[in-house]
Amino acid sequence: MRRRDFMTVVAVAAGYPHLAGAQQKAIPVIGLLSPFTPPDAEPWHRAFRQGLGDLGWVAGANLKVEYRYSNGQNERLPELVAELIKLKVDLIVVAITTDANAAAKATKTIPIVMASAGDPIGTGLIASLAQPGGNVTGLTQMSTDLAAKRLQLLQEVAPSMSRVAVLWNPESGTRVLAWHEIQGPARQLGIELHSLELRPGADFDAAFASVIEANDHAVMVLPSGPVFVVNQQRIADFAANHRLPLMDLPESVRAGGLLAYGPDRADLFRRAATYVDKILKGAKPADLSVQQPTKFQLVINLKTAKALGLTVPQSILQRADEVIE
To answer: Across-strand partners of 140?
Structure first.
């Protein structure tokens, strides 16, 4: 062995005695599991890699990353997790509750880092935010009154609306909570909510027809995994074609929707890198508290607002993180 290679192995062993002692690998290997497609997930994964880089981890140099995507097919998640376990990864990074559940069911020993899970307590992934217990930790996108704030913003921009179609996935515990959360604020704002439950594989054309038949004035999406992410362009196109204000994800607003407000998922993925760093250095997931969002995004598409004949209040424009013109 060349002296330089020998020194590299020694350095890795010194930094990761639990790996060196087991004679497992020269460098750590992490699995990056996603229920989305590679293009949809790339902005978040790029932020994650930047977070790792800030902490001195560079994929291909002192760290190996194994990517697995289910491309919106949740039924494939168990086999993808099994592949990562077979590779003997040192930890698994997951995106949302869907893939977190798949990973947690498959292993109770490999550390799992959530980047932006919905309700990890309600879904049984962790015992509490302060003391998660078990092998799962990371970040949650849970935030008090988030759905209500999104509804209020939508009304401020489109004050004449009184009936809103709400697209949501009832299989998501987080979205069930969000649906119940907005009932009170909707009544206070004088808004009637039209519930449209869309599970994976749902007929979006039928849902869109229902929106038209009900004469809804706007559309609001309660984001929940691939079912809406992979259809965000369809939803944005539908809203634009029927002149309906749309509150959805930032990516949907860039695709033609009107408004987006919620946790900055790229920031959550960037922060997830700190958990990876701590765990690879010996920390136990059970001892690392789960953190909530600290950064939120307000994205407005002024071009869409103009097409809809809406004037965005200056007070909202001043708060916007991104304005599309």
So the answer is: 117
